[in-house]
Write a structure and sequence with these properties.
mainly alpha, 2 domains, globular
Length: about 500
């Protein structure tokens, strides 16, 4: 039989296709298409309900547009799906953390941990320092609940009412409420945006929170100082009456300082660099145990039973971890605050992340993100320029896409490689996404956050804009730190 000599030019090499690099306009086609579709989806059709599912599908439509661009450039479907799979795989830890965060919020509610934080926080009110106290109270509650929306819709409404009785303008009080609520939202491991930002940037949750404190703590301190000065310069009348709220909490829960031992244990584990998933799991289980000991009647009610037995205790705690659970009080405005959605409440955010990873994966596969990153680096030759570009992109998405989640997701995917190429740790990107994407959403009237907060608090964005000091100061603070190269973390090669 005649032998065959195979050379490098034989057929097995003829099918290797080298994709040409996209030009910048080709790379931006999916981004423009995505923003346009989101704009129509939010402004003209779904409004505040866009995050219930339609925005997630729009992300998939953006991925489809990117795929069309890829097919024209000879990128195979298989290549795209492999990149999507890698992207989704990279978020596994974050998705599990989100589920555990939902479970922890449930057990910390029925155990009385969150209500105790609110109970002691409300007692900090004083007419002269009312505005500063409102910031602190809302910060505590928002850290405990992980939700600025819930904080403003419950305690925030009450504080605006109390402020009115003291002769303080609703705009001032609303600004204080939102400053504290968004500080807590940023710094809470229970917050969906606080989990979303590091997921997009490729950072670890608690590394992100610790690094974010570098700019966030000075911002909140400046905010508090300004509100203290305002408090001493205005005349107040009477004293805040929070008796009804305190009685409502005290009658519904067994309030005790020792309940804070559970969050103290979780914080200790985090400081000792315990894996976030492990720390949150321990906090969830401890919350369940404490609930059975300290709030047996609530556990029974959540279980839908009549008496506490092993089975009802198990069912009550499991319900709190996984599905909706609520505790009714005699105060109607506090009832929404004492509601948790468990792991099921995190599914919307998980859905958003998965769809964002599909869009980002296809954009990666076709070379669009690399091309955009290259263009951004050419425009932003300095570290400050890169930070400024990120801030501008987040603000632009908040204005055009009208959603804080998308103001984190889209710039997060676009800038991730640019930060890597500059030798910057992913925490720089995740912090900037929060400093400019999360907090400024409430300053835009047509953004879902601005519309929601304005409607809930009964104060127009124009009236509270200036007094939402923490929100508009945050992007300036992150740019200040970047300009003077303060605590800019470098990428560590592993």
């Amino acid at each position: 039989m005649e032998s065959q000599n195979i050379t490098p030019t034989e057929p097995q090499d003829e099918y290797i296709i080298k994709n040409k690099e996209l030009n910048i306009w080709e790379a931006l086609i999916p981004v423009f298409a995505l923003v346009g579709m989101l704009f129509y989806n939010v402004f003209f059709v779904f409004g505040d309900d866009a995050l219930s599912g339609s925005n997630q599908f729009i992300l998939l439509m953006g991925a489809a547009v990117a795929a069309i661009v890829g097919f024209r450039n000879k990128v195979s479907y298989k290549q795209m799906m492999e990149e999507v799979a890698e992207n989704v795989k990279s978020t596994t830890g974050a998705l599990l953390i989100l589920l555990m965060v939902g479970a922890l919020a449930g057990t910390w509610l029925i155990s009385g941990i969150i209500p105790s934080m609110i109970y002691y926080g409300l007692q900090m009110l004083n007419p002269t320092i009312f505005l500063a106290a409102s910031v602190i109270i809302c910060a505590i509650i928002s850290i405990a609940t992980g939700s600025s929306w819930t904080t403003s819709a419950t305690v925030g409404i009450a504080l605006v009412g109390i402020g009115n009785t003291l002769g303080i303008s609703a705009g001032m009080t609303a600004g204080a409420v939102l400053s504290g609520a968004y500080f807590g939202d940023k710094m809470s491991p229970l917050s969906d945006t606080t989990n979303l930002a590091p997921t997009m940037a490729g950072a670890e949750l608690f590394d992100h929170i610790k690094y974010m404190a570098i700019t966030t703590v000075p911002t909140i301190l400046v905010t508090l100082l300004i509100f203290i000065i305002i408090g001493f310069s205005i005349d107040t009348t009477g004293a805040p009456d929070i008796t009804n709220q305190l009685i409502a909490i005290d009658s519904a829960f067994n309030i005790s300082p020792w309940l804070f031992s559970v969050p103290a244990i979780v914080i200790f584990m985090i400081v000792k660099k315990t894996q976030p998933l492990v720390a949150l799991l321990v906090g969830t289980l401890l919350g369940g145990i404490v609930a059975i000991i300290a709030q047996p009647d609530i556990v029974v009610k959540v279980a839908g039973a009549d008496a506490l037995t092993f089975d009802t205790a198990y069912k009550g705690v499991m319900n709190a971890m996984t599905v909706n659970s609520s505790v009714e009080t005699s105060s109607a405005e506090l009832n929404d605050l004492f509601t948790a959605k468990g792991m099921s409440g995190m599914l919307g955010t998980i859905w958003l992340i998965i769809c964002a990873m599909v869009f980002g994966g296809v954009m990666d596969a076709i070379g669009a993100l690399a091309r955009i990153s290259k263009a951004l680096l050419s425009l932003a030759s300095s570290v400050f320029g890169l930070f400024a570009s990120t801030v501008a992109s987040c603000l632009a998405l908040n204005v055009t896409a009208s959603d804080q989640y998308l103001a984190i997701v889209v710039p997060g995917k676009m800038f991730k490689k640019a930060y890597e190429d500059k030798g910057l740790a992913p925490e720089n990107l995740s912090r900037t996404l929060e400093d400019s994407g999360t907090v400024t959403s409430v300053l835009i009237p047509w953004n879902t956050c601005g519309a929601y907060q304005s409607g809930v608090l009964g104060v127009s964005v124009a009236d509270y804009f200036f007094f939402a000091i923490f929100n508009w100061l945050s992007p300036f603070m992150t740019l200040l730190f970047a300009a003077f190269n303060i605590k800019i973390k470098q990428l560590v090669q592993k």
